C-alpha cells in the first residue's frame, strides 16, 4: 500500500508540476510540495516496516542508493544552520526547500520504488515531456505564444517571437526540454531495446529540439550542444572499445555538420547570439578591440549586471559563509551599482542599475556562492561529485558485464536510467552557469526523480 501511495505522491508533482507554470508560484508550489513530503512519509513507513521480523524489505543496493542522501546531508545541515540565522525567514525557507524536496523525490524513487515502478515513471516522464514539447511548438505555431496555457504571456517574449510552452520564461522551458532530451538519448543509445521505445524516444527528442529552437534560448542551444557531446563521451559504453571510437568519430562529425547547418539556417536565433555578445558591434575592429568590446557588452548586459552585483555582495559581506539563504533579492539594491562611485566627489558609479530588480542571479552557481559562501559551494560540489562518480561507476560496471557476455545486450540493463540521469545532471549544471533553472521547482523534481532512477540502476550494476 505504501509503495503505491509513494508512487502517486511522486508522480503528481513530477508530471503535473511542469504543466502548472513550473510550480513557480506558491499557490502551485505548496500543494505539490506537500505531495513530495507525503511520499517521504510513505518511504519512512516502508523502511520502518522493513525492520520488523519476517519482512524481507527492499532487495540489496541500499549502500549505493543511500549515497544520494548521505552525500547531500552535510550541505543540508549547513543550509539549515544558515537558514535559522537568516534575516528573512520566508526566502530562506524557500531556498532550503529547493534543495530538500528534490532529494526526497530522489530517495523515494531510488530506495522506495520497485524496478517496475521506476520503469513506469521513466516512460510517463518521457511521454509527459514529449507532450510539453509538442504543446509549446503547436502553441507557438498557432498563437505565437501569446498565451502560457490560459494566462497571457510576458510582452517581451511575445515581441521577440519566443516559445515558452507552459513556463512563463522561454529559457526555463528550454531547461525542461533538456531533461526530456537527456532521457531520449538514454534510450536511443541503449542496445537491445524494441522499436516502440525507440520511436517514443525519437519523438521526444524531436519535440524537445524543436521546442528549444522555437524558444530561442541561447543557454538552451549551447546546453543542447554540450548534452550531445556528453552523449558521445558517456553514452557508448555498451559497445566494444574499437567500435566505440568509430561511433564517437561519426557522432562528432554529425554533430559538427548539424551545428554548422543550423548556424546558417537559423538566422533569427543566431542573431540573438551575435547581439548578446556584441559581435556585430565589434565587426571590423582589431582582435584586441573585439575582445574588449565583447567583454564590455557582457559586463553591461542584464546577466552580467546581476552576476557582478552578486559577486560584489559576496565579497563585501562574508565570502566564507555567504550573505544568507535567499538574501540575494533583498540585498540586490545595495550592491546593484558598481562600487567605483564617490559620494564626496559627486561621482556616479560607472555601472548603474535602476531599471529592474533582480530576484534571482540568473546563475545558480553564482547565487549558491553568494548566498551560501565558499563553505556551502564546496559541500554542494562534493555531493555532485559523489553522484557523478557513482553513475559513471554504474555505467562502467555494466560495460564490464557486457564485455564478459561478448557484448550481447538484452535490453534489461540499467543503461537508460543511468545515462539519462548523468546527462540531465550535466545539462542542468552547464545551463545553470547562466540561468536559474534549478530555482524552478518542477524542473528540480524531474531531475531528482531521474537521479533516483540512475542511483538505483548504479546500485544494481555495481551489485551492492
Would you tell me the structural class of the helices and strands? mainly alpha
DSSP E strands, number: 2
* Range of strand content: under 5%
**Which stretches of 5+ consecutive residues score pLDDT under 50?**
none
Q: Reading side by side through the largest sheet, how are the strands ordered?
A: 1-2
Structure characteristics:
464 residues, mainly alpha, 19 helices, 2 strands, globular
Summarize the entry for a quick read.
The protein has 19 helices and two strands.
Description of the structure:
The chain is mainly alpha-helical and 464 residues long. The chain has one domain (2-238, 361-462). It has 19 helices and 2 strands. It has a two-stranded antiparallel sheet with strand order 1-2. A hairpin with a 2-residue loop joins strand 1 and strand 2 (151-152). Helix 9 (170-188) packs antiparallel against helix 10 (195-215). It is globular, with a radius of gyration of 23 Å. The relative contact order is 0.15.
